[in-house]
Amino acid sequence: MCHRPLGDRGAGAIEYGSAIVLSGALIACLVVFVPSISTGVGSALCRMLALAGIDCGEEEEPRAEHDVTPAYCPRSSDRSSVGFRADIGFMHIGQEYSFATEELSDGRIMVTSIPGAEAGLSGGAGFDFGDNRNANGSANFEANGTGRLKAGTTFIFDDQAEYEHFKDELHTYVSRENQSLLEYDSGMAVALADTIDPVEIPEPDIVSSTVEVEGNANYGIGLWTSDPDKRSTKNGDYEDKNDGGINLNLGARGNVTVDQKMDISDWRGIGRAETYSWGASGDIGSNVLSNTNADAASWNGATRVMRDDDGKLVNIRYSTVVTTSHTDGTEINGAGGNSGNSNLNENGGKGSDSETVTERSTQMVQLDFDTPEEQAMGERMLEERGLLPPANVLDYSRGVEGDPLSSMVTDSEQPATDPGPDAPDWERHAFEQGRVWQWDSNDEIEANGLEASLKMGLQFGLGANWATEERRTHDAQYLGPPTDDGKREFMPYAPCVAGADD
User: Fold this and answer.
1) In whole angstroms, how large is the CA radius of gyration of the chain?
2) CB-based contacts of 101: which residues, under 8 Å, 6+ apart?
3) Which of 38, 187, 292, 370 falls 20 to 30 Å from 94 in CA-CA distance?
4) pLDDT digits (tens, 9 = 90+) for 245-280
C-alpha cells in the first residue's frame, strides 16, 4: 500500500527554528574548519539566523570613500606680457608674448610661456556735432573681428627649490648663447663649459596650441571745449593766439566682447586634452580731462576632455570664471587728440597707463573615469550631453558672497543631494565621486600702452602694450564626500589660500 507524503503540513515554528539553527551551526563549523569557503558565507549565515529572530550583528557595507579633494588650485600667480599691433586700413596684425608663474595648493610650481599672433578686420562709423571754435563733440561705433593662434609651453616643478634650479639653468643657457653670438672667439670656451657643467633644461610637461576667435564692439561719445586762446583754420589746423587756456575733455565709452577658443594640449605621461571655451564681457567707462575709469564684468565657461595615449577617457573638467573689475587710468593724446576734430584724430598719438583691481570667482568640476565601465559611461554622457555637464552639477557651485554677478550662475549655499536611483548613471557618478571646488581671488593689473596713427590715403597705426598681473587666492572651498544622509557640503580648503603656510 502506497502512502502519499504529507509534506511539512503541521510543522510548528519551533521545528522550523530548530532546523534553521541546526543549519546555521553546520555552516559555522564549515567556516571554522574550512576557511577557504568562508567568502560570502557569513552574509548567508546571518540571513538564515535572522529568519529565526537571531541578530548576528552584521553591519551594512560602508559607503566607498573616493578622493574628492581639488585636482588643481592655484594659491597665487604672477604674469607679465608684452605685445604690439599694426593697423593698415581696416586690417590689423599683432603679436603678444606672456610668461606666467603659478604656485599650486600642493606646493608645485607651474611655469608657462605663451607666444601668440593675431590678425583681424575692423570697421566703424562716427560723426561730429556742434563743430565750432569753442565746443564740439563726436560719437562713434567700431566693430572688430580677430583671430589668434597661440602656442604654450608649461613646466611643472615639485617645489620652489626645483623651480629655482630651473631658473639658474635657464640663465646659464641664455648667457652662454649670448656669449657665443656676441664674441666670435668664444666658441671653444662655451663648448668647454658645456662639457664640464652641462645645462639641464627639462622637457616641458605640457605643450599646447590655441585657436581663438573674438568679436567686439566699441562705442563712445565725447564732448570737448576748445582752448579759447586758439582758433581753428579752414583746413582744420589750430593756430595759437597766445599761450594759456584750458581744454575740457568729457566722454563716455563702452565695449562688448564675445570670444570662443579651442585648445589642444599634450600632457607628458598622461595623454591629450581638448578644451573648448566661450565667454562674454562688457565694460562701461568715462573720462574727465586725461583721467579715465571703467567698470567691467565677464563670464567664461570651458569644458576640457582628457584622453590617454590610447584614446581612452581619463577625465572631463568643467570650469566657470566670473569677474568684476574697476580700472583707473590716464590717457594723454597728442596732435589734436583732445580736440574732438576727426581730421586731427586721424594723425596723432596716445599714451596710457592704468591700474585694474579684479574680483575673480573660479568654479571647477572634474569627473574621473578609472575603470572601463566608468569610461563607457563617460562616452555615453558625451554623446547625450555634448560639452554640457551633468544636470545636477549646475547645483553644486556656490557664488562669491555678496556678488550679484556670480549669484546669476549659482544657487548657493545649499548642500548637494543624492540624485536618486532613477537619475542617469553619470549624475550618480558626479554626486558620488565628482571633484567640485571653487576659489576666489583678487587680481591687480598694471598696464601701459603707446599708440600712433597717420593717414596717407589709408589709415596706418602702430601700438605697443605691456602689463604685469598679480593674483592671490583669499578663499577656497571644496565639496566634501557624500555623507550617510545623502548630502555633500562645501568645506574650507586652506591649502589653496595664499599665505596659509605662513
Assistant:
1) 34
2) 77, 78, 79, 109, 110, 111, 112
3) 292
4) 444 456 677 788 888 889 999 998 899 999 999 999
- What CA–CA distances, in Å, run from 408 to 13, 99, 157, 391, 393? 65, 32, 37, 16, 15
Cell 597705426 belongs to which residue?
461
* Nearest C-alpha neighbor of 478 from the set 40, 71, 1: 71
Nearest to 137 by CA among 145, 129, 147: 129
Rounded (to 5) percent helix, strand, coil in the chain = 20, 50, 30
* Distances from the Cα of 222 to the Cα of 254, 332, 353, angstroms: 12, 15, 20
List the grid coordinates of 219: 562705442
Q: What gap in Å lies between CA 14 and CA 11, rounded to an integer?
A: 8
Alpha-carbon span 104 to 495, nearest angstrom: 9
Q: Encode 239-261: b = buried (16+ Cβ within 10 Å), e = exposed.
A: eeeeeeeeeebebebbbebebeb
Asked if residue 57 has pLDDT above 80, the reply is no
Question: Alpha-carbon dihedral of residues 395, 399, 401, 402, nearest 10 degrees?
Answer: -110
> pLDDT tens-digit profile of 112-169?
988 888 888 777 666 665 555 555 666 677 777 888 888 889 999 999 999 998 888 7
From CA 252, how far away is CA 139, in angstroms rounded? 10
Q: Write the CB contacts of 239 (distance below 8 Å, at least 6 apart in sequence).
A: 230, 231, 232, 233
CB atoms within 10 A of CB 200: 10
First to last CA, the chain: 97
Contact indicator for 249, 222 with CB cutoff of 8 Å: yes
